[in-house]
Amino acid sequence: MKIVAKTDRGHVRETNQDAYAVGEFSDEVVWAVVCDGMGGAAGGNIASALAVKVISDKINASYREKMRDMSIKNMLDSALTAANIEVYDMADAKPELHGMGTTVVCAIVRDNQAFIAHAGDSRAYVLSDGNINQITTDHSMVQDLLSRGKITDEQAAKHPNKNIITRAVGVDKSIEIDFDQIDLDDNSTLLLCSDGLSNYVTNEEIVDLMSDGKHYAFADRLVQKANENGGGDNITVVVISK
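Request: output the structure for the sequence above.
Response:
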């Protein structure tokens, strides 16, 4: 397994409220988590960093070789739930942090399967044989409108409320987490990212930038393209491939 990752402040934001972590276990199992904080400069930074730490610690403490699929799902659910509690409690205890929270997308890749958990609008994609498939569904106001047929894809891309999310870590006492388990082939590449990538780089551009198989360059290229296209948000990218 090969992992490359990069985070960047972008051209507009004064701070980087994104955070990420990656890791690998001895049986060639890899994991990654990407968070995009919200709630002011201090709050967003703290929420994303805390969530990444809690989730990373839980995965490292709980993962065992030959875990059953359901055990991996439960582990991810527990990790994200623990992060929600930690972020919520900190925001509740400190008035200056009220309202902070963070999106999250987390993945464990084992053999030819990816286990993905998420809340918010940070995304997971799979690229294979020149095609790109978005695995996660955004928890956002715009996605709700799109799913109900109220707006078109073109309207969604330019909607003024594009940044309003409907689910995030730390905002409420409890959190509902979406889970996906997908099959991967030997040509598949898994991409995790914050909306600083997905809002500024099209699917076609992502495919083009990752078409030559030069895995080591993928994260740098994607971040550079997001900045070239405006860089209006923090950008975080994690790419996992065989």
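The beta strands are 2-8, 18-24, 30-38, 101-110, 113-119, 123-128, 131-134, 178-183, 189-193, 235-241.
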